[in-house]
Amino acid sequence: MTTASHPAREGKYLTFALGGEEYGLEIMKVLEIVGLLPITPVPGTPLFIRGLINLRGNVIPVVDLRRKFGMPAAEDHPHHCIIVVEAGRAQMGLLVDRVSEVLYLKESSIGEAPSWGSSVETRFVSGIGKVENGIRILLDIENVLSAEETALLEEWSSDPERKNEP
Amino acid sequence: MTDTELSHESALSLCDEAAVKIINLQEGDLSELFLVRKAVQDLLALDIAQESVREHGERMLDLLDRTIFEGDLTVEEARPQLMAGLEELRAPLLADSLMSESGSQEELPEIEPELLKEGITESLENLEAGEAALLVLDQDPSNREEIDRLFRAFHSVKGFAGFAGMKTISRVAHTAENLLDRVRKSELVLTTDSSALLYRSLDVLRRILHSESVDGIDELCRNLDRVSSGEEVVRVAAVPAKAVPASKPRGEEKPARDSAESGTLRVSTLRMDKLIDLIGEMVIAQAILADQEEVARAPSSPLAQSVLRSSKILREIQDLAVAFRTVPLKTTFQRMARLARDLSASSGKAIAFRTEGEETEIDRTLVEKLVDPLTHMIRNSCDHGIESESERAAAGKPREGTILLSARHEAGQVVIQIHDDGRGLDPARLKAKAEAAGLLSPDSAARNQDLYQVIFLPGFSTAEKITDVSGRGVGMDVVKRNVEELRGRIEVASETGKGTTFTIRFPLTLAIIDGMLVAAAGRRSIIPFLSIREIISPDAAEIRTVMGEGELIVLRGKTIPVFSLRRVLGDDCPAGHARTGKLFVIVEDGGELCALSADDVLGHQQYVLKSLDRNLGRIPGIAGSAILGDGTVSLILDIPVLVARARERNLHKHSNERSTAS
């Protein structure tokens, strides 16, 4: 594990809780954090797209990370937050259970993502951050919200049998 | 130098932004705190290599993180520290920026980037004007006025290039100018050869201005010189060229006077778009104001009256702002004229290209998107539509083919037509081709109008020989997609042996949409006014249920299928729902009518379109979104696509039911 192979991994991460685990996002990708806002569902989009919010006049889509990662759905709770991120040219909101803290992770405390075979989307994980009281799963948000994913979205929505409702 | 100044300026404004936010911070306001954090982060990301700034910035970030996440500090405690930190950040920046200001006075700037950019834009416009003149000169080579215009175009470009130190541009423009000067003095007559060289000069200049690399400049200049020195004129050619500087002051005077007369102002499109966005926001804020109880309850109160007055003014401002964004189609049409001319020359077919309604204005953001489909269709017309001279003669047609490109406004839409008097579409050949490509089953008995539609299918091309003009597999399907991106439709009409007409219709602007707000299944959605024919209440129409499932209404003797808006939006909905629907919205679906049943119609107004393309990509059936008066997001529906999908879904359902029943 040389610093040269992942020169950009060391740095600050915003961590958040999702389904009992703690995840981390590169802080430079985070634009802001807002509480739950009214979300307008969009027909013809995959389940993990919860819908659209009005962020001071900008309309941005919200991705429900629980649904995206195939976790059981949770009732909306006042703790729930939307983390607004910039991925590529797009702005997206990520619906998470709770925002935790900002962490500085040294390269030496970041491990490689283990391989589980094909059952877990390892493309979404850029590394595992080790901290005193456990681990933080560091997300590669560009991959989570990649163009490929959006392409899937188009394919998905052309299938008339599927609906937006769970 | 300028770069550092710029980043200093933005650093200072980021500081100010952060300060305002810190002052307004409320306890527990995570989102605002985060914005402050973002501002500081951006500041550090700016390329100002200064240790002190970096140090203070990092300290502020730590302070913010402690306040945001660890709860060590309350906002009240953090505020003075944050403000102090910001002040420390600001001081070195301010000192730097003052220093660089005084520094810039001593050093003469080479040329300001802003000025350069403007000069290039202006030069490109001059080249366009030159091309327009040249196109006229093709028909009327001795038109004095146009010769002058062309001369001025080259001259102005030369002037700018001299000022900006662009030597190649200077040289080409100067050589072309020399040639034209001799034409002006009636020492030379424009021939096809010389005008071809002038076209080439315009192209070369344009490409250099677009920072493309260009070959053959030496040869071009030599050829221009050769023509200028002219065979008919005395062989001592180098001397008359010297006469040019004498005409210089005159040439320089003219463009200056032109721009003064028109009294125009150059504004960056970015600013313009921002203004229109803000006006859109203002319209929304105004709508909220008008909805307030105090206003709605007492419509004659002074408050309500001034709200009404301000909405009227706002509406006018909005119309005006939208008009700012429109530009005439003239330039686009000119490009097409040039294209047709080149194609006519390279294919050896005689083609007369005419335009109508080039003064028609459209949103400037649409102009660029229109170029590709138009280019493709003109190419098609020249290549496939217009026959060769001998073929035309044999068919008893004039030897010269005609292509007419026209534009007009019609009921809030822009209509562009391309008509050629060529061979027209051949239904038999289309059918054979489509069957061979597997796009059509051999036993289908399609009408001609339906057969024409196959040209819009991917993978369809009738070109028997592949030329460099068209027929490379990029077909009308791409054109159709381009037009749909303009939220428009394309139609084709044709008569074998007489010609083909393509008609494109699209909305005037993509920024604002006239729509009807409807409610269905607890959601509010917007149906664009363009697709609404009329709105009726159910008792005015007769509802019939066909086979216990499909519903239709009989309206003025016509039967119209009914779709539940709920089902159209993808929700489950029991059959027979249309009967409980309160209102029917009659919409047009590809030339045929159909009805949508909605729970309620809430109102008609203009909505500022917020595109979803950038953040979510294109979603079939959704044209975009808009923010309603109460701040919630509402979807703008693309009715034809949604109805087509609802039909498809019904088909699926039926086939599923049938298979489970048997």
Would you write up a description of this structure?
The complex is a heterodimer of chains A (166) and B (662). Chain A has 166 residues and is mainly β. Chain A contains three helices and eleven strands. In chain A, strands 8-1-2-11-10-9 form a six-stranded mixed sheet. Chain A has a five-stranded mixed sheet with strand order 3-6-7-5-4. Chain A is globular, with a radius of gyration of 16 Å. With 662 residues, chain B is of the alpha+beta class. Chain B has a six-stranded mixed sheet. A five-stranded mixed sheet of chain B has the order 2-4-5-7-6, covered by helices on one side. In chain B, strands 16-8-9-18-17 form a five-stranded mixed sheet. In chain B, strand 6 and strand 7 (499-507) form a beta hairpin. In chain B, helix 5 crosses helix 14 and helix 14 packs parallel to helix 15. Classes of the chains: A mainly beta (166), B alpha+beta (662). Chains A and B meet through strand 3, strand 4, strand 5, strand 7 and strand 8 of A and helix 2, helix 3, helix 11, helix 22 and strand 17 of B.
Labels describing this entry:
heterodimer; A: 166 residues; mainly beta; five-stranded mixed sheet; 3 helices; 11 strands; globular; disordered C terminus; B: 662 residues; alpha+beta; six-stranded mixed sheet; 23 helices; 18 strands
Total count of strands of chain B: 18
Roughly how much helix do the residues of chain B carry, as a percent range?
Answer: 40-55%
**What share of the residues of chain A lie within helices?**
10-25%
The biggest sheet of chain A amounts to:
6 strands, mixed
- Overall 3D form of chain A: globular
From the N-terminal CA to the C-terminal CA of chain A, the straight-line distance is: 42 Å
Whole-number mean pLDDT of chain B: 76
Question: Averaged pLDDT of chain A, please?
Answer: 79
Instruction: Give the CA-based shape of chain B.
Output: flat
Largest interface: A-B, 44 and 40 residues
- Helix-strand pattern of chain A: EEEEEHEEEEEEHH
Count of beta strands of chain A: 11
Low-confidence runs of at least 5 consecutive residues of chain A = 1-6, 154-166
Q: Major sheet of chain B, described briefly?
A: 6 strands, mixed
Determine the structural class of chain B based on helices, strands and strand pairing. alpha+beta
Query: What's the Cα radius of gyration of chain A?
Result: 16 Å
Total helical elements of chain B = 23
